[in-house]
Task: inverse folding
């Protein structure tokens, strides 16, 4: 006598309506995750903007305090408060081994290919706003370039180097640093809207870069070199192609 055959295995059946419902659920889940990520990024951006306002207010107060210092404190400080606004210094080399160029103004200067060298505490509160510094070399020792300003400056291919505690509180708001090479401290620097495409930032400590603040995200690209351990995406930098 033949044994009864095993019952046929029934496969789950999907209707068109069921498939549509499943796709809708998946789409809603992805949309929720994406919405949460956007909301989180926006929260971080709002915190960045609040910090930007606080830091710029602090910077303005410190500049006011510095202006109250009065005349040059000693004769050893070369180019103290030098007014070089709009000067053409292309290709020139100006060097001093002391704490030179403090509170000097290089605003709107032509400094393409120029070399500026100072010693300890040099270039503090110096202003390079809107200056043309393509391929320029700026170098200072410890505590140099503190609270200096390069707002709107063209630093394409430039080299900026400082010793310990250099570039602290400096401003690069709206500056172009495409292909530039940076080394120094850069703690608490303003990099709002700055361009770092193809720049070499590998010599800057990751914690220093993470401490920089902005209102508009700085930009970078595939050619930008970051130090190990720094996450530009997590710090809300914007990648461009």
Result:
């Amino acid at each position: 006598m033949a044994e009864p055959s095993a019952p046929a295995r029934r496969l789950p059946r999907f209707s068109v309506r069921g498939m549509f419902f499943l796709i809708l659920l998946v789409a809603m889940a992805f949309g929720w995750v994406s919405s949460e990520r956007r909301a989180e990024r926006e929260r971080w951006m709002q915190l960045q903007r609040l910090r930007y306002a606080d830091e710029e207010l602090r910077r303005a107060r410190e500049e006011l305090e510095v202006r109250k210092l009065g005349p040059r404190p000693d004769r050893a400080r070369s180019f103290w408060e030098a007014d070089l606004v709009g000067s053409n210094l292309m290709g020139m080399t100006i060097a001093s081994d002391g704490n030179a160029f403090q509170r000097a103004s290089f605003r709107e200067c032509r400094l393409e290919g120029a070399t500026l060298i100072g010693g300890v505490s040099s270039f503090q509160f110096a202003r390079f706003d809107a200056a043309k510094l393509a391929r320029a070399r700026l170098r200072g020792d410890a505590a140099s370039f503190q609270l200096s300003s390069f707002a709107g400056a063209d630093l394409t291919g430039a080299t900026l180097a400082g010793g310990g505690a250099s570039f602290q509180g400096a401003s690069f708001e709206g500056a172009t640093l495409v292909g530039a090479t940076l080394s120094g401290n850069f703690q608490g620097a303003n990099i709002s809207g700055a361009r770092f495409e193809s720049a070499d930032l590998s010599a800057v400590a990751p914690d220093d870069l993470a401490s920089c603040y902005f209102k508009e995200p700085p930009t970078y690209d595939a050619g930008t070199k970051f130090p190990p351990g720094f996450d530009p995406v997590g710090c809300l930098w914007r990648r461009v192609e």
About this structure: The domain at 77-241 is CATH 2.160.20 (Pectate Lyase C-like). The longest strand covers residues 93-95. Helices lie at 16-67, 206-211. Residues 103 and 157 are 25 Å apart (CA to CA).
